[in-house]
Amino acid sequence: MLLDPCPPAWHFHEYHETLVAAGPEAVYQAMRELDAGRSPLVGPLLRLR
Amino acid sequence: MPWRLRLRDFRSPGFGSTLDDLLKLGFVILAEESPRELALGLAGRFWTLYLDLQTLTPEGFLAFAKPGFAKVGANFLVEPLGPGLCRLSTATRIFCLGREARRGFRRYWLMIRPFSGLIRREWLRLIRRGAELGGGPGQAWRPRRCGGKRMGPETADFFRRALFKRRSTSYGPRPAESGISWAWGRGDGPASAGSLGIAAKKQRKKLPAPLAKPAGWPYCFFSLLALYRAEC
Questions:
Q1: Is the ipTM of this complex over 0.95?
Q2: Looking at chain A from residue 3 to 42, which residues have their Cβ under 8 Å from any Cβ of chain B?
Q3: Domain segments of chain A as ranges
Q4: CB contact under 8 A, B127 and A43
């Protein structure tokens, strides 16, 4: 995993996963184009944070 | 209305919501392997008021070791499981540089972790819907009409049925068709007595309510909630 060396050790962590019924290219493109700020849930949470 | 303006401001894009916004905030792309993984990094003192976010290069992030700071590494990983099926995961790892940083981050983490998890789960959900619908994640949250292009007729029909519980789907002959339209009253007519009246009562039992009757409010509430979740 590309994340392994950065950082190699950690004090806190979290992990989430989901299954997607699509090909890796579509998933990756969706990830690159993600605009979560328009979500009524994420936008306010990001601002509060 | 000020609260409406504030709400609109909350929903406005450009606050760490896209990858570009994250990079503007101080995140740095540590590594990328398209279409498999994207790793991001950020260093700062997140538990303080001003965050003290550091602007670093990927090499600078790896070498960064200033005491009192914390380094965050996060990734999105796409693992193909089969034709048309992938596992999408996101991991976040925090390394604290020094005891003070660890203490400070622990307090911050206790407070922020539930919301952080919520944001990440929502990210995954938006990406999943964007990928599955094939319209990009920007369209994933937008409400769509029942029976529209994105929602298939079967799904739309399911929600229609959930919102309006029909008594029966098979309709008997209408009063006008059966020739006993005058017997549709509440028994105050010539048809309330006699053979025609009895026939009308029998007929009435077979006839369901012609219009969809709204179900109880809890049913409607949870159906609307399900509809909202399905459309977002």
A1: no
A2: 3, 5-7, 9-42
A3: 23-49
A4: no
